[in-house]
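Memo to structure team: turn this sequence into structure tokens by end of day. - J.P.
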Amino acid sequence: MKKKLKVAIGTDAFPPTTDGISSVAQNYANEINNKNLGEAVVITPKNPNQQDYKYNYEIFRYKSWWLPSTEGYSIGWPFKDELHQAIIDMNFDILHSHAPLATSYYFRRVVEKKPIPVVLTYHTKYEYDIDKRIPTKPLKDFAYHFLLNNINAADEVWVTSKGSVDSLRKIGYNGDYIVMPNGCDLPITDIPARQISVIKRKHCIPDDIPVFLYAGRMIWYKNINLIIDACKKLMDDGKNFKLIMLGFGADENEIKRYTKKQGIWDRIIWTGHILDRQKLQEYYSISDILLFPSTFDTNGLVVREAASCATPSLLIRYSCAAEGVTDGETGFLCMESAHSIASTLSKIMDNKELLSYVGKNAREKLYISWEDVIKKAYARYYKVIDDFNKKHVK
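Reply from structure team:
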């Protein structure tokens, strides 16, 4: 029997900060600890609103700078030598970083003092934020160089979809990688019809009109403008529907203003961010289709979440989120335009039989649990450790 591993799960975002990577880190830690595979410790920046006592595993917080914002991100500051020794003293078998940012740099500093194998999972298309948020070329060059050095320092690089490799190459990484998809922490569920009726009554949704859902961060680069413009076209064509907008984010107020400008405000239900996972599934279940036109996301957790409730997704053809999806069988695909989204919805939104058929196929063929993902990832840890030890044998 192989020894149980002690794993450092490194993440720049962890609750109370909530985003996709935060969710992934939680699920890795939960599965490894709760299924008694080994011991996982989360390594993440300090946050003034942290409530780490809620977790049944260790969370090591290192120095950070706090940025007051809607999304509540802390900026890790991993430059003190005593921090590096603290990680060394924990005697980890492997370090697994989920972002090539501050925590990855932290791990680099640690392994300079004590060689420990490092895995890096590349989750996000970082060039979007670099090109949008960093004003000058020298600073952009510095950011790309910083990311690339952190990626190159890993002993093995994982991606969550084949499409995200393009982003890695834009950063400048030319090495090998393996695909390790993300899972879904929502169980396969059929929400009772009476509960669906309760939620619909709460929001005054008639039973006979289609319900669309967007779930995710309220940020323009998720292509939310395409959803709004497509809904505007459907409304102008006399189509009746409701659009549920579930989530929050930095551009939420601008997005709300834009829906008013487009005249579809009264067609939209704003739920805010929903942390209760059962309630989240209720919203997936009352929806006929998830609209997820993002070409930014490298995996799209929400597609699997929707599939857990047999709710199909409308995705952009050739996007990472659409990887493995067959049009008209396990999801619906369209081009990256409001016209294409509206045209596709117009054809399928009233076809309950087709939506049900595709939703059930999505649940059967797209859904993958975190339990299955972590079993695969944990087995790969041993391979990384073996390769590392062979390389470093004296």
